[in-house]
Write a structure and sequence with these properties.
CATH architecture: 3-Layer(aba) Sandwich
Number of domains: 1
Number of helices: 7
Largest sheet: 9 strands, mixed
Number of strands: 13
Mean pLDDT: 96
CATH class: Alpha Beta
Low-confidence stretches: none
Amino acid sequence: MSTPIIGITTQRNATSGSIPVVGSPESYIQAVQNAGGLPLLIPLDLTTSELNEVFNRIDGVLLHGGGDVDPAFFQGPAHAEVYGIDPDRDRVELELVRQAAGSKKPFFGICRGIQVINVALGGTLYTHIHDQHPDALRHDWYPNIPRDHLAHPVKVQESSSLYRILGKTTVETNSLHHQAIHQSAPRLTAVAWAPDGIIEAVELSDHPFGLGVQWHPENLQAYPEMRALFQALVAASRQA
């Protein structure tokens, strides 16, 4: 049986010499490899036909964290804390989610990834939690804070696929975001929440594996339940 190819989305950065770079944090790549998948980075600037060709060749999709989704995609209010908008990244990731959701191809979104999933399927976001959710906990545990810092518990719905993967109704998670799902998309089901009610995970109904989490399990690989998330993506992609 061949190793499933997991397409990992990318982001733009620059070297110290201002050389443009498109890539992914190594933690996502290692998490996929350790789960038995073959990681393949999906570049930006692809034409629609090129993106379609890449999509057809991969077995699963991983959407990772990074800058914000352009609020124009969900009619969100402008906010000074919105950062890192990349039109190409929005275009590529929104299209990947729509194709994966429509074709039953497994996909997994992390942090920004869960937000992209929600927006792609018709949901909305808080553009800045602190100002739009008065009772919110602190969710932006960055920068200069270890990425494996356990910030708060997450309650998991026992009837969910996420529970079957994690094996727990409560998990401790890190938290590195200032945006989150406001109204979930009609096709998505919220299956995990922070103590303040912020949605921490969603699943796509009637799909083999369509999952998004708001925390960063790639930075919590010391915990078996967090490794299990990547193992589940790879297993579903092997069967796709």
